[in-house]
Amino acid sequence: MSDMASLDSIDDLRGWLALAEKLGEVKTITGAHWDKEIGAASEANYKRPAPPALLFDDIVGHRTGQRVLTASMSNARRLGMTLRLGTDLDDRALVEALRSKPGEWAANASRYPVREVETGPVKENVVAGDAANLLDFPVPQWHEADGGRYIGTGCAVFTIDPGTGVLNAGAYRMQVQNDGRAASVNIEAGKHGAAHVREWFAREGRAPVTASFGHDPLLLVVAGTEVPTGVSELEYAGAVLGRPVDVIRGEVTGLPIPATSEIAVEGWLYPDRREQEGPFGEWTGYYSGGAEPVLTLDIERIYHRDDPIQLGAPPGKPPHDYSYMRSVMKSAMIQDALIQAGLPGVEGVWAHEAGGGRQLLAVAVQQRYAGHARQAGYLAAQLPAAAYMNKFVVVVDADVNPRSLSDVVWAMCTRTDPAEDIETMRKTWGSRVDPLREKDAPPFNTRAVIDACRPWSRIDSFPPVAEASEELIDRVVRRWPDALGGSW
After folding, report:
1. Contact call for residues 272 and 295 (beta carbons, < 8 A)
2. Is domain 323-458 in CATH 3.40.1670.10, yes or no?
3. What is the pTM of this model?
4. Domain 3-octaprenyl-4-hydroxybenzoate carboxy-lyase-like N-terminal spans what residues (predicted)?
């Protein structure tokens, strides 16, 4: 079977897992406990170079076949596979393959409305009422100081705009509540899902929600990144796949549920129905404060396949489960957005993993006029694809590799005058999970735009860089491949 044929054959998480196993990209761990051991083993794995996916089976207290998958997209090969771009991509090839793709997918999304089907694998088991218990599944406690067990980490939470009917999918953390009969849904106020919930509350006093906890990892990609306003994440996923996503309708809410989901739930949110949630080890690398009341979903239905697989994506101090995926996707989306905004000379963008794929952006430009570097920095700092929780935007010249943190810092140290080249923007879009936010304070943040380009007034006379040309490096590497690594 050809590379693309193999990718086209992926229809669900099981198909994805079968191909990843065939490629030697999956390691299985048996006998781990849901209480912190799955989380700790996953964390140790994220720190490895190009970590494999981990599949946990025979989890203590649960029968064989009730599995948890982590690190699904923690390297270039599996992320490229998930995005249907190829099965043999390295970091550089993945970035090249993604050029202009996010913009194309967004533009074509409307051509792939979801396809409603009567039934699907997710309806192999339907559990209703008091019998619906999330703790029948091996839901992990991911971090040692978490406030509970989180079934929603690699999830896709579905809400709908009551006015336009546009569907949104978001990856919001969900903690199991009430001994498995409910789950809190922690949605940041500025997210599309939160706006939908507020609209439903204003119109009807309650908001319908469905959520999937195991699915093709592509749904985690689209739920966890900022798809443009007005574009349904499931239609965006359809554009990536080149075919519509099959959904069933929830029996209670009528909202879509991916037909091939492993586990899914549905229910209603009410303004006054809240449970204490947290703390939780978040993508900033800190526990996000203490417990606070969060909107909570009473589970009306659980749908699940036989022997379902949970897709886990726990955050934490980078590198964490989805920091690589977010870095790649955010970088491509921000680069597309800068080009579409009309900014000339964009050579590259990278959202660094050290900042969780959000807080530290490097933008490389070929300077063409006075003020070009600052324009790039200000635009990147506030683009919808980049604005949430951004802290630092560093603009570098085209000779600096924006993916290399070492190169970016070198440019800052040698081309930035701290008194002249660092601008700050105040009261910008922050987050409740920011460890710098004071308790009960609004989630503002401050961000810096750092001009690490050669000064425009000295661009022709600035000292040349002391390094060999690419041609010379290529020549010596070819001449002594064994000593110099064989390739460059």
Report:
1. no
2. yes
3. 0.88
4. 18-97
